[in-house]
């Protein structure tokens, strides 16, 4: 019989309490659902077991990474349609328990188990990292988490990020951008440099320096000396090679070093671009205090960080299971207000906050385009599971920024001297226009 798709559609709609917004095609070739929508391809029964034994986001992610689920048609449209049923439902144990008291719900679950085959939980894909979220953010655990994400292979990152090798939000022109990703990343680095007021002869600490792009820009375009630190061996090796090729080894030093171990301050300025998401809530005040100590009086910090929206009950906040298991182990997002408050508690004077949320959505869509354009090579470098992790993570994140579920902000903070003279311009936003290429 070739009726698995209509049967599955009926079961899922009964479980979800809503019409299925995408078309389904199952392992037997049958299809069901809206004819002009993206197609959710259920390749085998194991996909159903992933969803049954881990309902919600993580089960869906496991099936996707394992290749048991895929999408034909526009990926963004499909994810956006499914988001209301999966990512935004806010299901928890209490809600599930309430549902299980409904006899119709229980009947649908039994029928889904019957379709799924052997009642055994499938093994998670090998790309998944699962460990208890306790004892987080020691120097050892942070190094392990960073290695999981960044030591995937520099060749893979070259495919995704392009020649700029900047792994953070680009800064796009208005109206909607027609320019290149490389120019938009240059403009972002220049924006950071202007906010820090970098000048020849100054000393910059670049925390989480990645593949060296900010360090190179600051030394080459603004004549500063730079210490860049990362916990990734592969990033450090790549950055040092780029620096040597540009003849800037006398101005830039790249270290594999934890920010807590930097002892050769003070610095005139500190940039932290897309690094603070790895710090964790328990360590954030320590992070801010260390950076404050490493700055000269009057020195500036540029903290570029993704933020989540605050919840009415912050004690109920739960880390995103997919991101924690597959993308950023031990990472945490905090509301912007929390970040600003902790920077102030550490002694900083926060002088400017700029949201560039829409810019990150545009950047992520370009990264997805890069990955999909060179998919075969990306798979050969990292394996199909890892490539699918990145495809799902970046596409879903683009939608999250577009829908204002998460944001990204640049915070300029100053270690203001006791005199109170911050040396900040009275009209600070003169830095808004990007510099020349």
From TrEMBL:
Biased amino acid composition, Basic residues: 131-142
**Region named Disordered:** 116-142
**What CDD domains does this protein's entry cite?**
AdoMet_MTases
Q: Which UniProt keywords apply?
A: Lipid metabolism, Methyltransferase, S-adenosyl-L-methionine, Transferase
Q: Which GO terms describe its molecular function?
A: methyltransferase activity
Q: Name one Pfam family in it.
A: CMAS
BP terms from Gene Ontology: methylation
InterPro entries cross-referenced by the UniProt entry:
CFA/CMAS (IPR050723), CMAS (IPR003333), MeTfrase_dom (IPR020803), SAM-dependent_MTases_sf (IPR029063)
Query: Boundaries of each Polyketide synthase-like methyltransferase domain copy?
Result: 156-399
Family, as annotated: Belongs to the CFA/CMAS family.
Q: Which PANTHER family match?
A: CYCLOPROPANE-FATTY-ACYL-PHOSPHOLIPID SYNTHASE
Mind telling me what this protein is named? Class I SAM-dependent methyltransferase
């Amino acid at each position: 019989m070739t009726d698995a798709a209509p049967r599955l559609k009926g079961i899922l709609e009964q479980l979800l309490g809503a019409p299925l917004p995408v078309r389904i095609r199952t392992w037997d070739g049958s299809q069901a659902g809206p004819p002009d929508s993206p197609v959710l391809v259920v390749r085998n029964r194991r996909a159903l077991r992933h969803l049954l034994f881990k309902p919600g986001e993580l089960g869906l992610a496991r099936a996707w990474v394992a290749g048991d689920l895929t999408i034909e048609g526009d990926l963004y449209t499909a994810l956006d349609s499914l988001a209301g049923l999966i990512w935004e439902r806010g299901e928890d144990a209490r809600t599930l328990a309430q549902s299980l008291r409904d006899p119709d719900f229980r009947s649908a679950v039994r029928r889904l188990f019957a379709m799924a085959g052997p009642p055994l939980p499938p093994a998670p894909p090998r790309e998944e990292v699962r460990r208890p979220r306790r004892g987080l953010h020691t120097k050892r655990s942070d190094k392990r988490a960073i290695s999981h994400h960044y030591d995937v292979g520099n060749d893979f990152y070259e495919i995704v990020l392009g020649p700029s090798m900047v792994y953070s939000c680009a800064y796009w022109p208005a109206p909607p951008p027609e320019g290149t990703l490389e120019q938009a990343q240059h403009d972002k680095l220049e924006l950071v440099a202007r906010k820090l007021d970098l000048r020849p002869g100054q000393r910059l600490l670049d925390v989480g320096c990645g593949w060296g792009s900010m360090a190179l820009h600051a030394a080459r375009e603004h004549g500063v000396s730079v210490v860049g630190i990362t916990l990734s061996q592969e990033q450090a090796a790549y950055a040092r090679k780029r620096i040597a090729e540009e003849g800037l080894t006398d101005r830039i030093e790249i270290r594999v070093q934890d920010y807590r171990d930097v002892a050769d301050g003070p610095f005139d300025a500190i940039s932290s671009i897309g690094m603070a998401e790895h710090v964790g809530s328990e360590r954030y005040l320590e992070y801010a205090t260390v950076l404050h100590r490493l700055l000269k009086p009057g020195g500036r910090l540029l903290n570029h960080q993704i933020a989540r929206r605050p919840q009415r009950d912050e004690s109920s906040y739960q880390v995103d299971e997919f991101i924690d298991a597959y993308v950023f182990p031990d990472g945490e997002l905090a509301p912007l207000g929390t970040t600003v408050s902790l920077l102030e508690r550490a002694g900083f004077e926060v002088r400017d906050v700029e949201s560039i949320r829409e810019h990150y959505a545009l950047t992520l869509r370009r990264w997805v385009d890069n990955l999909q354009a060179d998919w075969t090579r990306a798979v050969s470098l990292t394996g199909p599971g890892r490539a699918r992790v990145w495809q799902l993570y970046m596409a879903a994140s683009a939608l999250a920024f577009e829908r204002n579920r998460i944001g990204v902000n640049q915070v300029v903070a100053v270690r203001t001297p006791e005199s109170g003279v911050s040396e900040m311009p009275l009209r600070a936003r003169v830095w808004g226009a990007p510099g020349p290429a």
